[in-house]
Structure of Thiazole synthase:
Amino acid sequence: MTEANKDLLTIAGKQYQSRLLVGSGKYKDLQQTREATDAAGAEIITVAIRRVNIGQDPKAPSLLDVLPPSEYTILPNTAGCYTAKDAVYTLQMARELLNGHKLVKLEVLGDEKTLFPNMPETLAAAGTLVRDGFDVMVYCSDDPIQARMLEDIGCVAVMPLASLIGSGMGILNPWNLSLIIEQAKVPVLVDAGVGTASDAAIAMELGCDGVLMNTAIAGAQDPVRMARAMRLGVQAGREAYLAGRIPRRFAASPSSPMAGRLA
């Protein structure tokens, strides 16, 4: 077994080789969705149940026609929900559409302008979903206390935002992310705000277990090429994290030491 195959991402007891999770919205058509997903090497695909057809409308094209559950892990999400009640109902509907599927992504938004998470409603929904038997991955603020509360509730992964959804601003508060990573006993995945491959690499260098993105790929001028770039960025960041970077210092350190020189 290669080193890469040993370094697997485990979520809710299932192992994945890819640490890049992608969304399925905002592409020009379903074919581009599939091409970008494959270029990203993603195994987990998040789907906004309120916006994407996975069987709700039997007369319309279904995302599952191009991204079948036999090949990918479909991750239903609650994008567009602003209350715990709506989020819970949406995921219960997704479970029926996907034949009892348990792994879900919870997000409860605070307002339409910032799309920042409403943490009281998120905590309430998480508790209800966990008690109902769901494996909950949860979008949250980059607050270490809130992240710990979600883990204590029983969420299988916490997904703090790097910056606002769709903003492309990158990681604005690496210190908070580091605190969350340091304390977490479940996977930590950056969710929201990634703009380019270097943002993904930084997240992984900090020690994140993975990165989820949609707009950064689908909104690029060439989504398929950007998907490949993101794949490489995640891989490079993970390798750098595992390798262990040199410490930062305020003095030079020559690559060729003076001690032991020949002349």
Remarks:
- The chain is about 35% helix and 15% strand.
- The radius of gyration is 19 Å.
- The mean pLDDT is 92.
